[in-house]
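pasting for the record
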Amino acid sequence: MRRILLLIAAQMFLLALGNGQTVSLPQPPQVRAKNHVVSLTLRAVNENGRDAFAFNGGTIAPVIRASPGDVLKITYINDLPAKSSETCAVNPCMNMTNLHFHGLTVSPNPPQDDVLGMLAMPGQVLHYTVEIPRNHPPGLFWYHTHPHGESDRQVLDGMSGAIVIEGMERYAPQVGRLRERVMVVRGRDIEHDPKAAELRRVAEIPSKGCGGEPEAAGEIFTVNGALRPRDRTWRAAVLANRERIAGPLFGPSARWTDIGNRCA
């Protein structure tokens, strides 16, 4: 039987700060344009058995902020090990990688959003120069790896990040006065994680499967890379349609109303 988490809605309130089981909501690093050029270096690494983007000494993927007419110049270094211990859709895993700029209306030709010809094997480097059109709509987009046969594993390990194209206030001036916080919600694969039992406990995943499903949840939600962080008052809605994914987004300092967790 398949578990489908249709909708979670939350009203979160900051309660006692002394709860030791949660952490404050981390903020991902942000990269902005200088003279209309967004420059950064990303590395593909394997940390504790999981693939990740390394940036500025950490493994939290940066939020890329750009405006219409800007250029993204990204140096992408494949520092993944030559041999992988993970399982891919097409085995054996080769630890090849690249980048896809999901939702951006940009060229599919190299050195832009070319997911077919631009591939880096371990030890190789890719240089992206992505030109964002001057008439590009504002909004929230994302980037992730896209090597065919290996992208599902890499993305579930966390190799993804947010892209913000500025300019929304030109269409809706009232949003220019609002405080903004980027929350990247990911489904993290824990099926083969040696700490899976502890992660399920922290995420408060029921011991019994949905509708008596014997299999334990294979994925959990994280927010900005953290499991059940604590934050101030927010409303959040998450839509998902993945098998065996479970657990609330925020810690016990939040008050949750689950209005659509059902089996199908």
